[in-house]
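User: New here, any thoughts?
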Amino acid sequence: MCGFPLRCLTKCGLALLWVLGSVQAHGQVGEPELKAAFVYNFLQFVEWPKGSTASPPELTLCVSPFSPLKRQIGALEGKPVQGSTLRVLLLDLPSLGRCRVIVLDAADAEPVFGALRSLPPGHGVLTVVDDTDAARAEAVFVLGREDGRVVFSIHPDAAARAGVVISSRLLRLARGAR
């Protein structure tokens, strides 16, 4: 896939350097901060279906009120993402349609996936679940720990159902990628 500009890769590289710099400056970054950085960087490598964003200048990320990443994801508010500004909201199931990205804890995934199943294919909602034990086929991204490291996997079928396209560069970095 060649649709991702070099400046996007540069931004992601700078964000990664920032995280690594934080690790060196402070000795160690916490798992929630690292996972939030992963989520932010994922957004740089995703294309949403045309017309799927209600407000083009903003990309709305909804986070579960029960997610252990809630505070760290909230800190991403206002950051740039592919020419848009990231807006972070608490997930409210009746207002699911306003979310382009949803970050879930495994415990609250089922009601959200049930609601997403009622949307038409290509709905444009990217899902991230923070729990490898809940590596559901419905989640586009799954975050977890393996051998003391934060890892992620990608379910391409879930991405296709959502109508989002993930850069092949990111697909190669995912756990289990060939």
